[in-house]
Amino acid sequence: MSRPRRTPVTTRPGHPAPYRLFADHRTLMSAPGFWRMCAAGMASKLAAGMTGLSLLLLIGGSHSYGTAGLAVSCSTLGQGLTAPLRGRLVDRRPARPVLLGCLAVHLAATLTVIVTVRSGGGATAICALAAAVGASAPPVAVMMRSVWHGVATGATLNTAMALDASMTGAALIVAPVLAGWLSLSLSPLLPYAAIAALTVLAVVLVVRCPSVREPSAAAGHWPGPLASSALRRLLVADALFVMAVTAVDVVLPVYARQAHAAALTGPYLGGLAVGGVVGSFALGPATKRLPRGSALAVLLGLFALGCAVLAVAVRLSPILVLLVCPVAGLVVGTLFAVLRTTGGELAPAGRVTETMSWLSTVDMVGGAAGAAVFARLADAQGGPTALALVPVPIVAAAVVSRRVRTRRGR
């Protein structure tokens, strides 16, 4: 007796194919050079994540922590202000000489900072050199996002951006721990050996990556990607979103101290980060099920809801806050991924790296604003009140993002 033949599963025209968990991940992993791109992205993110704390501990060992903090700020400012310029160079010039040139200047500036600090140099010189370190950092991390845009399309692009956000979240957890352990347990110089090795590895992997395209952008007009009104609205939404994320990171430690639960500060922030990483893997591919025109607004609404629940939890119990933190951070990684995906779709032809660089710069601006505003609010009004106000910039970001339409979303 013959077995009945199985009828293949089909979908009606106009209906999406059934969602399969991790199917898009498997498709992405089959892309040429996938593991090389992952290694380059992770190395660049670990190096960037180690830099701030390593610089703080290096300078703080022989100078005041006020000077050390100012130097870290100068390094961040130098990196943020020059990111679009370095991105534009990558789009308009061959990647190899641009990255190798940045690497040479970056390593020289880093070595000069170390020598200046160890020899007792003045605060002005240290801060100026720290700014040079940030300004010359090879733009591997933002360049990898444009590489992903070159090898992935459709649903796999959402997955690639979610993977990139997951690696960022993992680096935010691992990098400070590694930098602190090397600096405090062994030597303040060892983190810089690790940072240099990771940076060199990232650059070498990228310049040898077959997925890196030749520059295709002409000179064009000076505003570049900023000429797009949709992209400008996306940048505003991104800044407001990062402001809210940083606000949570800043207010939770203040709340923990005010609630006499300072020991829970690390678990709070770790719970947020773990929630973001897990959410990126679980929710990232599923974003394709959302209407393209409203995906950002829906995700931002979920983030606002999570922060509102967190604001309620802080008024009840510090232990309850610990349980809510992973839930509040669940969509953070996915939001970063969707913002990068949308930015790539809005980028003019041949200007994806510059567009991603503008998003990185706006991240720093939003983060600085969130830290300054909400730290002051938490100190003056208390952690619970400050957390209750975090949904305000998120809702504003959702309102702005409703008017963002990509070419695919029209």
Account of the protein in words:
By secondary structure, the protein is mostly helical. It has 16 helices and no strands. The protein has helices at residues 23-29, 34-60, 65-92, 95-118, 123-135, 140-151, 155-186, 190-207, 229-258, 265-283, 295-313, 318-328, 332-346, 352-381, 383-388, 391-401. Helix 3 (65-92) runs antiparallel to helix 14. The radius of gyration is 22 Å and the shape is globular. The termini are far apart. Residues 1-19 have low confidence and may be disordered.
Outline the fold blueprint.
Blueprint: H1 23-29, H2 34-60, H3 65-92, H4 95-118, H5 123-135, H6 140-151, H7 155-186, H8 190-207, H9 229-258, H10 265-283, H11 295-313, H12 318-328, H13 332-346, H14 352-381, H15 383-388, H16 391-401
Helix pairs in contact: 1-7, 2-3, 2-6, 2-7, 2-8, 3-5, 3-14, 4-5, 4-8, 6-7, 6-14, 7-10, 7-13, 9-10, 9-13, 9-14, 9-16, 10-12, 10-13, 11-12, 11-13, 11-16
